[in-house]
Amino acid sequence: MTEETVIHVEHVDAGYDAEPILLDVSFGVRRGETFVILGGSGCGKSTLLKHMIGLTPPLAGEIRIEGDRISGGSEEERARALRRFGVTYQSGALFGSMTLLENVCLPLEAFTDLPHDARNLVAEMKLELVGLKPYADYFPADISGGMRKRAAIARALALDPEILFLDEPSAGLDPVTSADLDRLILRLRATQRITFVIVTHELASIFAIADRCIMLDKPSRRIIAEGKPADLREHPPCAAVRAFFNREPDTP
Amino acid sequence: MVLTLPESCSAGEVAALWRDALPSIAKLSNGDALVLDADGVKRCDGSGEALIVELFRRSARQGFAITCRDGARIVERTLSLFKTDAFDKDPGLLSPKRNTHTGEQVGWAAVRIFEDICEQLAFLGEVVVSGCSLAVRPGRLRLRDTMLHFERAGIDALPITLLIGFLLGLILAFLSAASLQQFGVEVYVANLIAIGLFRELGPLITAIILAGRTGSAFAAELGTMKVNEEIDALTTFGLPPVRFLALPRVIAATLVMPILSIFATLSGLLGGLIVLMGMSIPAVTYWQHVIDSSTLTNILLGLFKAGVFGLLVGLVGCSHGLQTDRSADGVGRAATAAVVGSLILITIFDGIFAVLSYLLGI
Question: How far separated are the first and last CA of chain B, in Å rounded?
Fold first, then answer.
């Protein structure tokens, strides 16, 4: 892992319709690390992720991916930034009318000149990476939730992105499947040299996979902690961080 | 033969190599040798890895030897990640689980039609049972939901119903006036429009609007609820989805249809009036002919048909909605099936009404 910062989030106000959920958020994600955005429900994790992947522009501030602005810049700049990352959503968001192989092939068809055989082989190899090659000709409705999430990762990997954003990868999964997914993330990081940005509030996953994390706070609408998860648990900078890591209820 | 991989082994470069080099490699056989020069490779993405796997796969199949120049250990890394024998099938032959054989497709289509009919009958049975229990205890009807669907299917559909009814009357008047004018009896256009609209076209056109607008909406709403597991939640609460979700919609559609049909008919009569006034027939004469030909039998028959059509649209829409597959694709198919099914049933029942009214001399 290098110290080079690949994602710059600078003075961002996050939210919709001029109603900020987060104020003046700044941080950087380094190449090759697994960076986790954590916090309680409704603190703005997913909103911030939507700004980072360019689905909605932030209310203020700037987000750059390898120097290219994802919102507010030129179309070329945005297109360059978009090609650098893949995203998987909470539900997997696979296309139900396509097989897993077709789902993975879709971005290859749209963005490469690879012949049909080559596209299929690349897609099969991506499915092999996530352990789903035997299910290549299954439809998303025919596989389990955990498999759908792994298939979504395979689709996100189709164009070999440098960065992978994962929104709540463990949501709705049992602890064993969730741990499987964590191992997959670790393996992909090791073999594919991908930078991961993960939104989650699953403590077990955070300690298993995160190199660094930021914690968002709903009442203050700001980042209240940044660092390694183990350090934050050992030396929490404030009561809210201690409460989160020790699973304590909110104090009245 | 020597194959030199480019410095950047990404999709663009690999696509060209795949097209240019692989046909020659396909001719290699036992005893031939391929030198894979990967020394200069600095970046290799999924496409490059696929090419390497493909070469080793072909080597195993065709029997030629591969010697690697692998200074950057790209080939070694790729082969450690992907076992070439894991991709023993020709990727081009890997086909999704879809039936493309015509006979098989026809067979499956017949099975689906049979299953569909069974499901519709089962749904109809449930509706009848729920309707009977509701008749015993009317307080169990979700009146607020029923009124909401009544508003959406009725009041919200009024503008389009009035417009289409008006244009229908206008077109009908023009078409019939052109013929009747030759005999100097264009005033009887009023009778034709009144009988046609009250008895046949008013209910029919309103039913078509209701099927396209409301039947599809019922199917999509209930289908999305099924995808979101809301219907499962209702079932586990012990609330039957048919009584809770379908009955308010079916009742609303049945009640709203006769009212919409009256509006469509009146609007159509207005369209006819405008055409006939343009032909110098006084409005009083027009209305007199309309009143004379609008017998109570015609009006009641039209309203009864409208009610039945509303019932059909409601039933078909809700039935397809509740039987939706759990996917976005399934919701779309349910909405389409609801409209198509409603239109078919409306036409069949309209034919039955025509035959019955002829036999009964109505």
Answer: 90
pLDDT along chain A (252 residues), means of 10: 83 86 93 91 88 91 92 87 88 84 90 90 91 90 88 91 90 82 88 89 88 91 91 88 80 48
- Out of A144, A160, A176, pick the residue that ends a domain: A160
Q: Are strands A5-16 and A60-65 parallel, antiparallel or unpaired?
A: antiparallel
Tokens 């993960």 — which residue? A198
Same domain, A145 and A199: no
Our CA-based measurement puts residue B210 at a distance from the nearest CA of chain A, in whole angstroms, of 29
Looking up residue A218, the CATH number of its domain turns out to be 3.40.50.300
* Single-letter code of the amino acid located at B70: D
The residue assigned the tokens 């209820």 is: A249
Task: Tell me which H or E stretch contains A215.
Answer: strand A212-217
CB contact under 8 A, A137 and B97: yes
Asked if A155 and A169 sit in the same domain, the reply is no
- The residues with which A17 forms a beta bridge, in sequence order, are none
* Number of independent structural domains in chain A: 2
> Model ipTM?
0.78
Residue A89 domain-assigned?
no
Mutating which of A104, A108, A159, A160 best tests the B interface, going by the most B Cβ atoms within 10 A? A160
* Chain-chain contact of B96 with A160 (C-beta, under 8 angstroms): no
Chain A nearest C-alpha distance from B163 (Å):
37
Q: Is A133 left (phi over 0), alpha (psi -120 to 50) or beta?
A: alpha
Structure tokens at A239: 């009561």
Residues 6+ apart with CB under 8 A from B361: none
- Give contacts of B53 with chain A, Cβ < 8 Å: 121, 125
Q: Of B73, B62, B57, B72, which is closest to residue B33 (Cα–Cα)?
A: B62
The model's pTM is 0.70
* Same structural domain, A48 and A101: no
A118 and B12 within 8 Å at the Cβ level: the answer is no
- Chain A: give the shortest CA distance to residue B15, in Å: 4
Residues B310 and B315: their CA atoms lie apart, in Å, by 8
Maximum separation of any 2 CA atoms in chain A, in Å: 62
Answer for the pair B79, B56: CB distance below 8 angstroms, yes or no: yes
Angle, helix B158-180 to helix B247-278, in steps of 10 degrees: 40
- Contact: A140, B49; criterion CB under 8 Å: no
Domain that holds residue A173: 1-84+162-252
Residues A63, A28 contacting (CB under 8 angstroms): no
